[in-house]
Specification:
CATH class of one domain: Alpha Beta
Order of helices and strands: EHHHEHEHEHEHHEHEHEH
Number of strands: 8
Number of helices: 11
Distance between the termini: 7 Å
Structural class: alpha/beta
Strand order of the largest sheet: 2-1-3-4
Shape: globular
CATH architecture of one domain: 3-Layer(aba) Sandwich
Length: about 325
C-alpha cells in the first residue's frame, strides 16, 4: 500500500435506526443475519423468523429509541471517530463509515470510494473484541460488497485491538472520570463493573475468542488503575438460548448484597454511546440498582470522540500500515 496516495479509512460498525420508522426494518436486517442468529432449521426459515420477531419486538424497541431522542446516535459518533482519526493521520486519509444493519451500507460506501478516485483503504472494525457475530459478520459483508462493487480496491483489515495499549489508556481515563462522580471518601470503595454485550454461550463453546479478549481488556485497564475491586457482567441478553453469564443485572444485585457503597458501570465492548448505554444502562440498570438497594450507580463516559481515543485509533492504523510495508 502506497502511503503517499489517498487512502480511505473505513470504519465498520453495527448501525442503528435513524428514525422511529426505521426500527422495524433495522430489526429485520439484524435478525436476518445468520452469522448473528442461526436457526436450527437452517437458512430457509431465517427471513420468516426475522419478519416475525421484528414485528413482535419493534413496538418496545421503538419506545426505547423514543426515550433517547428517536434514533440511534451510533452513526453520528462513528462518523466523528472516523473524521477525528483521519484528521490525525493526515490529509491523505479520507473517512468513511459502513454500517452492517442500516445505512450507510457497504455497497453504497464502496461506490462512493470509487467515485472519489481512491483505490486503497484501511478497514477498521469498531468492535475491539472479535466475535464472528459482530466483526466476523461485518467483515464478510464488506468483502462480498467489495468483490461486487469495487474489486480493484486494495484494502487491509484491522479486525481486533482489544489489547492495544493506547485504547486501554483511553478506557482507563474514562474510568477515572467516572469515579469522579462519587464522593471522594467513598471513591476507593466503589466496585467497578465492566459490562460487555452478551453472546449466546454456543459462540464461546465453539472457540470464539470474545470472552478471552474481553477479560484481557479488563485486566489491562485495571493494571492502570488504583486498587478498586472489579467485576464483569454481560448485558442485552434476549431470547430462549443459553447466554454468557453472569447477567449484569445479577452482578448489580451481588454488589448491593456485598455492601458496596456504589458501582461504576464501564461499557467494555462499546466504543460509543448507543441504545445499550443511554437506555439500558442509564435507565434500566439505574432502576434495578434502586430496586435491590444499591446506594449509587453511575456510568463511566463512553469513548466517543475523546481526543485520547481518536489518537489511539490513528496510532493503531499507523502501526498497522507500517507492519504491512
Amino acid at each position: 500500500m502506497n502511503l503517499d496516495k489517498p487512502t480511505a479509512l473505513i470504519l465498520l460498525n453495527m448501525g442503528g435506526p435513524d428514525s422511529l420508522k426505521a426500527v422495524k426494518p433495522f430489526l429485520y436486517n439484524l435478525f436476518s443475519d445468520r452469522d448473528l442468529i442461526q436457526l436450527p432449521a437452517g437458512a430457509l426459515l431465517q427471513k420468516p423468523f426475522a419478519w416475525m420477531i421484528s414485528r413482535l419486538r419493534s413496538p418496545g424497541v421503538r419506545r426505547n429509541y423514543a426515550s433517547i431522542g428517536g434514533k440511534s446516535p451510533l452513526l453520528e459518533w462513528t462518523g466523528k471517530q472516523a473524521e477525528g482519526a483521519a484528521r490525525i493521520l493526515g490529509e491523505n486519509f479520507k473517512p468513511y463509515v459502513v454500517m452492517r444493519y442500516w445505512n450507510p451500507r457497504a455497497e453504497d460506501v464502496l461506490r462512493q470510494v470509487r467515485e472519489d478516485g481512491i483505490d486503497q483503504a484501511v478497514v477498521l472494525s469498531m468492535y475491539p473484541h472479535y466475535t464472528s457475530a459482530t466483526t466476523g459478520s461485518s467483515v464478510k459483508d464488506f468483502r462480498l460488497a467489495a468483490q461486487k462493487i469495487y474489486p480493484e480496491l486494495e484494502y487491509s483489515l484491522i479486525e481486533d485491538w482489544y489489547d492495544w495499549p493506547a485504547y486501554l489508556d483511553a478506557l482507563a481515563n474514562r474510568v477515572r472520570e467516572g469515579l469522579e462522580q462519587f464522593h471522594e471518601l467513598a471513591r476507593d470503595e466503589i466496585a467497578i463493573l465492566f459490562s460487555a454485550h452478551a453472546l449466546p454461550q454456543s459462540f464461546i463453546d465453539r472457540g470464539d475468542p470474545y470472552l478471552d479478549q474481553v477479560l484481557s481488556t479488563v485486566r489491562g485497564v485495571m493494571e492502570r488503575l488504583d486498587g478498586n475491586e472489579w467485576k464483569l457482567g454481560f448485558q442485552s441478553r434476549t431470547g430462549p438460548v443459553k447466554w454468557m453469564e453472569p447477567d449484569t443485572l445479577d452482578v448489580i444485585e451481588q454488589v448491593a448484597q456485598e455492601g458496596f457503597p456504589g458501582t461504576l458501570i464501564v461499557p467494555i465492548s462499546f466504543v460509543s454511546d448507543h441504545i445499550e448505554t443511554l437506555q439500558e444502562i442509564d435507565f434500566e440498570f439505574r432502576m434495578h440498582a434502586e430496586k435491590v438497594g444499591l446506594p449509587a450507580l453511575e456510568r463511566s463516559p463512553s469513548l466517543n470522540d475523546h481526543e485520547d481515543f481518536l489518537q489511539a485509533l490513528a496510532d493503531l492504523v499507523q502501526l498497522h500500515l507500517q507492519v504491512q510495508q
